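Hi R.,

Here are the chain sequences for the assembly we discussed:
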Amino acid sequence: MRRRATPSRTPLLPVLLGLSFLLLASLLGGVGLGAAGLGWAEVLWYLWAGLTGGTVHADDVAAYTIVWEIRLPRVVLGAVVGAGLAAVGVAVQAMVRNALADPFVLGISSGAAVGANAVILLGAFASLGVWALSVSAFASALAAMALVYAVARSPHGLTPLRLILTGTALAYGFEAVTTVMVFGAARGEAARSAMMWLLGSLGGATWAQVPLVAVTVAAGWVWLRLRAEPLNALAMGDETSSALGVRPARLRRDLFLVTAAVTGTVVAVSGAVGFVGLMVPHVVRMLVGADHRRVLAVAPLAGAVLLVWADVLSRLLLAPAELPVGVITAVVGVPAFLLLMRRGGYAFGGR
Amino acid sequence: MRLDIEGVTVEAAKTRLVEDIRLTVDSGTFVGLVGPNGSGKSTLLRCVYRALRPAGGAVRLDGDDVHALDPRAAARSLAALPQESSAEFDFTVAEVVAMGRLPHRGRTAAHDRAVCADAMARTGVAHLAERGFLALSGGEKQRVLIARALAQQPRVLVLDEPTNHLDIAHQLDVLSLVRASGLTVLAALHDLNLAAAHCGLLYVIDGGRVVASGPPHDVLQPALLAEVFGVRAHPVRHPGTGAVQLLFDLLP
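And here is the predicted structure of the full complex:
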């Protein structure tokens, strides 16, 4: 691929303002659009009532519940999940110095899938009630993280290739376990739910899930943004990092723990929504360049916008049935991504 | 700033890559490391710029052990051009040079910009600022990396074969740039004539040990070169400048 000698560097402030506005519009759009066929005026009124604590007429309670208890948490959660996946994708690509990496390359999501499917298919942890799925997914994500870390460690710390190979190999193992559970399950409907989870869905979103995920994603993002410059050095190479006063082994270990924790939390509520964490970092780099100070400022917003709209489409395309949101991110994302890639002179991992 | 390497030893998989190396680079001098491939030059330099912690011995900057210093404090005194090239991320030249500011504290954007602009002007890469680093030629890349090292405002510069893959004009160009910086320099070099022309002092390394050291023309004697590099060397006087050059054949 020919590369333009001058990579594109769009000024940051207009991009940030534009994306913030777009995100706000997307949140509104996400709440307004849906299978229930509520009018915009109604939706806005319920939102206003919800925000200000206004009163809702008894006849409208069902519609109000749809807006305030079903659509809004789902849209907000979608934004948070998209932001988290995008930020983690940026960090993981720098951590393993590989343009093909995404949040799932470390095997965390495949580990989470084992826990989630144990609940969906085998009814494990039934005593936890509605929390069983998230708790079990998160717990098994943590177990996967510990396993990947233990296997990938070497006397030289976590080296990029070892991390990718370990993550990928263990992911195959976890997926095998999940597959056995899916095929072993007696009920066809359960297998469908399992599939839904594996491809990612925000269908189970409730307000109760939002705070924990939002805080984790925000904390993870702040931590990463504070390390934007060391991430630049790490992207240039371990020796360069050392010469610039960054300890690559230590930074990579910390990055592994932070990205794995955020991935585990996000995946626990949404399943493995693919493509956001791979594509958004690249699209953002095409737009604002490779400097992580800029990429990490823009990527979460872009990821949030993408996932909110992908979720809207997943609800509407086959309404009243739902598609897994991961299918939409791929269907919408792949052509857009390929188009951008062909048009721009963007370098994917060198020449 | 003075650089002392005191008895540095590096072990990997029970073999000694570097064994009890002692050398000194006086403030403001240019010292060269020469030796065959695999002799331990790069390993030794990696200990100096803290990519590797030696099993024994110490690397001192004006008496302070670099491995005991805070990493960023060490990076404020010592910059390096390692021999690695990652090509995953398309940074611009300006962004690569700006990375040199990372170890500094209490920075302001304006001061950083001024330091980077100065570094780029000194190395003649200011016109490349908005270009992608990956699209540059080998010679341009080395100039940019030197600019990054200068933006670090160090007092010691460590170079690991900085002239690799460069044509002859760029080799001379890179070394004169480094010399013009006035920093204390320790460089591993492959080209013995180039090393002799630019270094005040040479250390010859073979099998992880220093086997000779001194002014270039005292050190680069045919007997030593035959033993260390396995080549026959003929000293010849340059007809124009009078400088001694070496011509090489394989040993019979």
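DSSP finds 14 helices and no strands in chain A. The two ends of chain A are 7 Å apart (CA to CA).

Let me know if anything looks off.

Best,
T.
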